[in-house]
Write a structure and sequence with these properties.
heterodimer; A: mainly beta; seven-stranded mixed β-sheet; four-stranded antiparallel β-sheet; 0% helix; B: mainly beta; six-stranded mixed β-sheet; 11 strands
Chain lengths: 111, 110
């Protein structure tokens, strides 16, 4: 069966520090992968998606970036975090226009 | 541009009462709509999708193209239904992007 992992589960970082969040999927190949940010009162905002290795589409301008170095690995990064980057980050995958499967999320606090 | 609106941030009902979570959408094509749910300390997961016309945990949702709505309903709410509910719309093409509403936090009181 397919599973999706995210780490770390929680992260506290100072303003201006770099960021790397990792998402991996098991049990499937060539999935579409997605990064969302979930903020209180703002719902789920799609940040990036990828339909294949090295293919990244950005949905919103920001100081975050994403990469997909392997088929089942999706990384969210930043060179310098801002206070406004705090939030709950979710990774998801799908292969059809049907269900998206979400990871457990990473709670990021930027101080 | 596509948009999903959930007008209620919070909804509180008593156990056994009917519940309706509202969702309106804006989309130029033929919409595919979903309801996702996030229970406390659990992952966000699919509750139901309109194309399958199924009832999950007693919840149903009917797509009304005239009113551009996809409201989620349950005749008798249970305490375990307390959760965050998101309505979502999928865009066309092979990227399968979901546009989510801002969510409604449902609390079912005993």
């Amino acid at each position: 069966s397919q599973t999706i992992h995210q780490w770390p589960a929680t992260l506290v970082q100072p303003v201006g520090s770099p960021l790397s969040l990792e998402c991996t999927v098991e049990g499937t190949s060539n999935p579409n992968l997605y990064w969302y940010r979930q903020a209180a009162g703002r719902g789920l905002q799609l940040l990036f998606y990828s339909v294949g290795i090295g293919q990244i589409s950005s949905e919103v301008p920001q100081n975050l970036s994403a990469s997909r170095p392997q088929d089942r690995q999706f990384i969210l990064s930043s060179k310098k975090l801002l206070l406004s980057d705090s939030g709950f980050y979710l990774c998801a995958w799908t292969q059809v226009a049907d269900t998206q499967y979400f990871g457990p999320g990473t709670r990021l606090t930027v101080l | 541009a596509q948009r999903v609106t959930q007008p209620e941030k919070l909804l509180s009902v008593f156990k056994g009462a009917p519940v309706e979570l509202k969702c309106n959408y804006s989309y130029s094509g033929s919409p595919e709509l979903f309801w996702y749910v996030q229970y406390s300390r659990q992952r966000l997961q699919l509750l139901l999708r309109h194309i399958s016309r199924e009832s999950i945990k007693g919840f149903t949702a009917d797509l009304n193209k005239g009113e551009t709505s996809f409201h989620l309903k349950k005749p008798f709410a249970q305490e375990e239904d307390s959760a965050m509910y998101y309505c979502a719309l999928i865009s066309g093409g092979s990227n399968y992007k979901l546009t989510f509403g801002k969510g409604t936090l449902l609390t079912v009181n005993p």
